[in-house]
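Dear support,

I submitted the protein below through the web form. The confirmation email said the job was done, but the results page showed an empty box. After a refresh the structure appeared. I'm attaching both so you can tell me whether what I see now is the final result or a partial one.
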Amino acid sequence: MAVLISNDAELDTLIAASEIEEAVLCTLEHEGVERPVEVSVSFVDDEEMRGLNRTWREIDAPTDVLSFECDSPFDEDIPADEAVELGDVILAPGVITAQAAEFGNTPAEECRLMLVHGLLHLLGYDHLEDAEAADMEAREIEVLRELARRRGDDPDDVKIGPTTRHQGE
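What the results page shows now:
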């Protein structure tokens, strides 16, 4: 597994690089990804996120996370020993920090959630339908609780609100 972390604007990433890598690893393990994977995690300021959101989603507002998937780790046409370029997760720590309290999270908790959310999008999950949203949110909480265990925190303390709240931006 290779994780490229970009933070050209030198923003507060809210969680350490080691925790970002652990979140990627934990999500991939949870989803049964056993092959080599490359993923990019980038931190951008609100204005850059607004531009990306406007360009790719036609929503003229910053958002917390965007995901751009490349290849599927489950694609049988890609040789098993070849690394799969999973895609890019782009996080806006300014937006994440601003919304964290509203959703009952610390900025670090909200960042973990948005990172896992973005990674699940790269793995093909979505939340357009209610059943998809429920499945995605169940997977998010499972991964976040496992991450809490690995940090030595109480997994029962991990709570999330519905992450599909961003549909109507």
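Response: this is the final, complete result; the empty box was a page-load delay. Confidence is low (pLDDT under 50) at residues 165-169.
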